[in-house]
# Entry
Amino acid sequence: MRAENSFMTLSLDQRHALLIAERSRDIDVITAAVTAVLATNRGATLLDVEMAFREGGSPVYLIASPTLSVVIGMPAWRAALDRAGLTPEANQIALADKAGAPRRP
# Structure
């Protein structure tokens, strides 16, 4: 059974690395950190990463369709969801999907 908060599948060091990358406000740096965390933690999903950003108070959001997009700020998140034709709930499901193509950047 998974922990109540899905981000708990990430180690403290992994969550820290994501939040340090977020401080750069550079999409490439953040995407590289997401990729590194997923490569070292095969049990993690993009939803785990998203939850780490949410729990850390980060303005970074992940959009899972059609490929991974990283955006900064809620207005950018809503616009990206609209462009992808996703609801927040559908995006969350896509982020959690271990078998889905958008799982890894």
The two ends are 26 Å apart (CA to CA). The mean pLDDT is 87. The chain is about 55% helix and 10% strand. Residues 8 and 104 are 19 Å apart (CA to CA).
